[in-house]
Amino acid sequence: MTAPLDVSGSAAEAHPESVLVGAGKAIQGRSLTRIAWMRLRRDKIALGGGVVVVLLILVAVFSSPIISLFGHPPLEFHQDQIDQNTLLPKGTFGGMGAEHLLGVEPVNGRDVFSRIVAGAWISLLIGFLATIVSVIIGTVMGVVAGYFGGWVDQIIGRIMDVFLAFPLLVFAIALVGVMPNEGFGLEGDGLRIAMLIFIIGFFSWPSIGRIVRGQTLSLREREFVDAARSLGARHGYILFREVLPNLMAPILVYATLLIPTNILFEAALSFLGVGINPPTPTWGGMLSEAVRFYTLPHFVLFPGLAIFITVLAFNLFGDGLRDAFDPRAH
Amino acid sequence: MVTYIIRRLIGAVAMLIVISMVTFGIFFVVPQWAGATPEALASRYVGRAATPETVALIAERLGFNDPVVVQYGRFVKGLVAGAEYDYGAGVEQCPAPCFGYSFISGQPVWPDLVDRMPVTFSLAIGAAILWVLAGISVGVLSALRRGSFFDRLSMGTALAGVSLPIFFTGMISLVVFSYGLGWTPPGGAWTDFTVNPAQWAYNLLLPWITLAFLFAATYARLTRAGMLETMGEDYIRTARAKGLRENQVVVRHGLRAALTPLLTLFGIDFGLLIGGAVLTETTYTLPGLGQFAILAIRNQDLPQVMGVVLVAAGFVVVASLVVDLLYAVVDPRVRLS
Amino acid sequence: MANTALTQTYNPSTKKGGTLKAAHSADWDSLDPADTYYGYSFNFGRYYWRTLTTYKTGAGPDGNTVVPDLAEGLGQPSPDGKTWTYKIKSGLKFEDGSPITAKDVAYAVARSFDKETFPHGPSYLNELLDWPKDFKGVYKTPDVDYKSAVEATDDTTVVFHLKKPFASMDYVVQMPMTAPVPKDKDTGAKYKEKVVSSGPYKFETNEIGKRFTLVRNDQWDPATDPNRPALPDRIEVQLNVNADDLDNQLISGSIQLDIPGTGMQPAALGKVLPDPALKARTDNPTIPRLWYVSVIPENKPLDNIACRKAVMWAADRVANQTAFGGPVAGGEIATNVMPPPIVGQEKFDLYATPENKGDVEKAKQALAECGQPNGFATTMTFRSDRPREKALAEAMQQALARVGIKLTLKGFPSAAYFSDYAGNVNYVKENGIGLATHGWGSDWPDGYGFMQAIVDSRTIRDAGNYNLSVKNPEVDKLIDQASAELDATARAKLWVEVDKKVMEDASILPVVWAKSLLMRGKGVTNLAYNEGQSMYDYVLLGVE
Amino acid sequence: MNFLDVKDLKIHFPTDDGLVRSVDGLSFGLERGKTLGIVGESGSGKSVTSLGILGLHKGGRARLSGEIWLDGEELIGASSEHVRRLRGKKMAMIFQDPLSSMHPFYTVGHQIIEAYRIHNDVSKQVARKHAIDMLGRVGIPEPARRVDSYPHEFSGGMRQRAMIAMALSCDPELLIADEPTTALDVTVQAQILDLMRDLQREFNSALIIITHDLGVVAELSDDILVMYGGKCVEYGTTEDIFYRPEHPYTWGLLGSMPRLDREPTERLLPIKGSPPSLINVPPGCAFHPRCPYAERTKGKADTEVPALAETEGGHLVRCHLDRAERQSLWENEIKPVLETQ
Fold first, then answer.
1. Partner-chain contact C117 B87, CB within 8 Å
2. Are B241 and B272 in a shared domain?
């Protein structure tokens, strides 16, 4: 938040904008993106979140080399590390050490570090792509509702209400539970991931939809849209050339904030046992196994921390982004 | 006002119909795409080593041989007019609203749901009280001391709070406080309020706090944002200019306006929660509606799934209606028409 | 000492009184004797029902044999093995004081026929007895006389008429379908809410899905019942208790009995096994249950026996055992189908490999023989809500990868596993399912009781199959031969033959003969492991 | 000593971007029964000044210095609590936008009653009668009924009347009206201004009217203070400002006055550019970047801050130009343009 004058509200007369405009020449003429970037650069915490996000993406993208450097293949068994009777890792702290950085899993002795690194890939992939699905559906629905208004808006509003009233998690579980294992030319993990992306994305669009609708409503009343309309521009032209470009900033901001929500959604589904099929590692899936082995701190903590750090980083970055684009929306 | 309520109720019923159709579709149409026959569906619900004759009998009895539309119609009829259940030695009436009989237990669904409501209600109400109190007070204090150490600390904690999945915090809390320190009861502990209120509260303490922490984080963030916005409003300046004491300015003029938009959110959150706190109940193995829903889905017990989904959706619908009515009371600018 | 209760009665006592506190981590399928099919339910039910015969109580190999309960002696077969007659004792009474007669037993058997009302119960008698064509159960066709199947020829004689000779009738009638039900108190599917007791205890309260309590039934006459000492005054049962919490309560002593008796959760194992004091309180029997992988010959290339053998050779039995819980909590590495507690079982190993870790060379040879020298790809199913089956699938995937067999793993919910997926003929064919995780426990400890349901190809139907892999006419022929053989020793030999045929066919990959790690409750007296029940003998228990 | 004396008032806000000097050395005085108009563009510091007088910056981030004497009491050094007691009773304020300045959730009556009861220990019934009375006095028809209406149920003019009623409910001796008519229709504007004049006479209070529009203060004010960049650039009687203005900025303001005979957007003497940044105040005369006559100072305007100098009879001007030159510019160049038509 960089609004210069915010004196617990009492100096509201000295409005931030007047100062910004007055501070004048330096800032005038710069695009909203540039201003946002300037604000963001000053927000150390958000930048920290952003750096972690970038690191996580790098980890996910380069998971294979990282694993081959520091760990073992995530599916490889190391039952020599396991006590045959209790099925728990023989070593202290879950077998943590140079060989297995974060210890090994009970029963089969798979390397926890490698599985967490490999899990990053799934979490981020689903988080990102599901968000894209939500953004596409949400933007189309929001723009259509906001731009055309009237009964179209009414119907879309009702649909959003239905989604809000849905016990979504229960529903998603039911849906994933009865889904077939082949289809759309995909099978196995590929189909499963595609399905999770679609289901999570499909259930998360109303939040974006509402925001886009609101923004479109206000954009529709602006002069430049009026001007374009009075010049006889077609709906398509106005939507794509006038409305959508102006929606990019809010969409970007709320998409960033939706990613962590979707990552949590995926983790919850995996936790409840309806995520990706084993043995492909996911953080939620690891946590659900940890329930049975709750006495092993390394097995409970590391996947949980992985989720926490990822979600927190996205939240920090998204919050900063939002403040940068619209300080008063906070 | 009355017409508004009636209109909203009609809308709510329409919404529930849509939800019930979609649920029904998921459980009947999707498996049929996958090639399930009535016998295959029926064989889910019989004991092991059932003969083909048994399976055919069960398929007939559960009505799987009828078209989906007829099956759905029967479900709706049961809801509206009640249904009859042949228990062998006689026929039992299941009065409306009859959500049918569980395929697995053969018991009517509704009493089972009613049975589990107190658990979820207790969980939701207790947690709601905690998170509203904690979230709002922290949010208000943060807003008033903006930029202070308290503000940074509490907002940092809140952001961490919204980033922690409840099945992780729940598990950690159980491991530490129940299995480690032995301060709190283990997962699954539940005592009815009417049996022993102290034990009831003691058993729910950990789930309450964990669940409340998650929501309190969100509410603290929103309260703070709302407070900051409100305290910058012109009417707050007016109130100060009148010579009103600062605490009265905050409470009478600031808080009321800042919290009103939270009412809607609270309605939906609370409505969703009393329909089943799936993750919390799973983590703490509490025998509430959320756990019921998960078990029903695992067992593919359609009448139970339909029952719990509709009840849950019904709660949200009712909660949002109540909230909208309350909103009109709180904010005189809102007209119900 | 660990394992004491396997061979002798631990802490023997005849002291009466006290309350036995028991808990269950889930719920009963039903408390109705006609509608239940769990071992613990058969075991526990004897508190409130009596059947024609019952397993001999107590520890040791005798526990596998049946002794009379309601009946005065074991069943009398007719020379052709198609009629079995049981004489019941006199002076028996229901909890309301009314006498128990042969009619009540016959009625109970007849009512259990109605699988629409009682879908959970076993259907052996439905298939074995010669029911009239027009009989649809005592509720739908109350006027049809069912005496062609079961009849009470007088107050003390029950006669069963079978469709074909059957040797193991004494084992079948120890199941609760023969527990008497008074016709005038029968409320069909609602009977489970108020079961009329014929045993030493009766229901005081019964909140379905939550808890129930049993108290003494003063109409039960101990003189008629040498099997049940009936020590506690009261038995309290909690249902749907958190499994981890249940273990902890059992360890700490706040409950004394874990009703399902299938062993402890991993967290408790990690606590109990390393602790000598706690370990001393455990018993670790092998139970008549096999965990196995069906190797389904339905799809290519597993229709070729050499490819199935490649799977046998490639599997890492130690990894499989670990996946299933290790040698203590999981079980003994299984080398053939029939588990050791089955009467007449013989252990043999057609696919012995060094250290049981599999033999890559032999597997590759078999693959070459099958025409798939580089391996092949197939799919393995498991029940997603069962962590051990999941671990087994993962272990199989790792082991088979060594020889180039690529497994895709697919988990399904238990509820629909047999109906829609692994037991559904079309699904298996269309989705190229090659391997499927299964488990099977015997209903009684002889070859028929264990094998028939999982190796007889004639039981295969469209959906809901437990067996899809063993489809061998020779096996079927041997089964018929064994069923009709009235000589016990010869019969046992025939079942071993069946076992060998199946293993030669390489259509079942045995994983473990299950063992359960049972913990004796604190303050429990007179405790013994019963082989027939594969659990502690519940009716013997007393409390200090 | 005047009833109100403001001496060298400075109100600064430290921000991430630097120190914002919203008000930078402002002095003026005002007697009971007199009216002062403070005129300037938005951002010139006029509203910050009024909030400063009311003590509404206390507790915030603002840094205040200088002296504010109200009826013999110094306010900047006084405790917040003391100033709070004076607020609403001794000094009251009317805000620009009556809709946003009244709490939307409370009835108009409730808000007036609240204002009255803060400073008067009376029962609710008494306060309510007083509120109805006040509403009647500001010209609201059927006050007994309208007292229970919510602000959004009033028209804009009515709301402003209600706002005035609220401000006057405790007979304040100093009344500050911040752009009291900006949000209103032109016809309503006149009514409100009339009302304020009448009420001021009735209550004999000192009145400060803050506006960007000289037209608003023309008839009402005794004196006028022109602010630019946080400083006073010209001060004088209304006659001084309208007939003998000496600061080029004042000329610009006069030229910007909307007149009934012209389009509202038409300006005679537009002031080019935008108001100065309060962080990086231009060196020298704050107005010089926009001043058409700046070059006549031979560079002085760029470097040296002009002093506020008295010309005659209390007329103060802050300008580097000679007085003679200013007078001649006014007479020869500006006045003729303003008087066209």
1. yes
2. yes
Q: Kind and range of the H or E element at C258?
A: strand C257-258
Interface contact flag, A287 B31, Cβ < 8 Å: no
Percent of chain D whose pLDDT exceeds 90: 18
Binary contact (D87, B256; C-beta < 8 A): no
Contact of chains A and C by CB distance (3 or more pairs under 8 angstroms) = yes
Q: Which two tokens stand for residue D51?
A: 């909030």
Q: Provide the number of structural domains found in chain D.
A: 2
**Could you give the number of structural domains in chain B?**
2
Neighbours of chain D (3+ CB pairs under 8 A): A, B
Question: Measured between CB atoms, does B305 come within 8 Å of chain A?
Answer: yes
Of B94, B126, B157, the position where a domain reaches its end is: B94
Chain D nearest-CA residue for A18: D43
Q: Following CA atoms C94, C100, C106, C107 in sequence, which dihedral angle do they give, to the nearest 10 degrees? A: -40
Residue of A75, A77, A81 for testing the chain C interface, max C β-carbons within 10 Å: A77
Contacts of B301 (CB under 8 A, 6+ apart): B45, B102, B103, B104, B295, C415
Per-window interface: D 155-184 vs B, CB < 8 A: 163, 166
**Is the confidence metric ipTM above 0.95 for this complex?**
no
Q: Which of D171, D196, D218 is the last residue of a domain?
A: D171
In a domain, D291, yes or no: yes
Does residue B145 lie in a domain region?
yes
Confidence label for A178 from pLDDT (cuts 50, 70 and 90): low
In a domain, D298, yes or no: yes
Residues of C in contact with B171 (CB under 8 A): none
Other Cβ atoms closer than 10 A to D180? 27
Say if B79 falls within a structural domain.
yes
Residues B229 and B117 in one domain: yes
Each residue of A120-163: pLDDT tens digit?
A: 988 999 999 999 999 999 999 998 888 888 888 888 988 888 78
Q: Are chains D and C touching, using the cut-off of 8 Å on CB pairs and a minimum of 3 such pairs?
A: no
Please report the pLDDT score of residue B168 as a whole number.
92
Q: Where does a domain end: D153, D171, D189?
A: D171
On whether residue D282 sits in a domain, the answer given is: yes
Lowest mean pLDDT among A289-293, C136-140, D174-178: A289-293
Cα–Cα distances in angstroms (integers) from residue B246 to residues B230, B236, D56, D86, D91, in the given order: 14, 10, 11, 14, 17
Q: Are A292 and C266 in contact (CB < 8 Å)?
A: yes
Range of the domain at D291: 248-338
Whether D120 maps to a domain, the answer reads yes
Q: What is the C-alpha separation between A316 and D315, in angstroms, rounded?
A: 57
Judge whether B88 lies within some domain: yes
Which DSSP letter does residue A89 get? B
The answer to whether C240 contacts B287, with C-beta atoms less than 8 Å apart, is: yes
Domain that holds residue B120: 109-335
Range of lowest pLDDT (B53-57, C505-509, D57-61, D258-262):
D258-262
pLDDT score of D285 more than 90: no
Question: Does residue B206 sit in the same domain as residue B87?
Answer: no
Q: Which residue has the tokens 């510019």?
A: D329
Q: In DSSP terms, which residues pair with C282 in a beta bridge?
A: C519
Tokens found for residue A202: 């499909």
- Quote the pTM value: 0.84
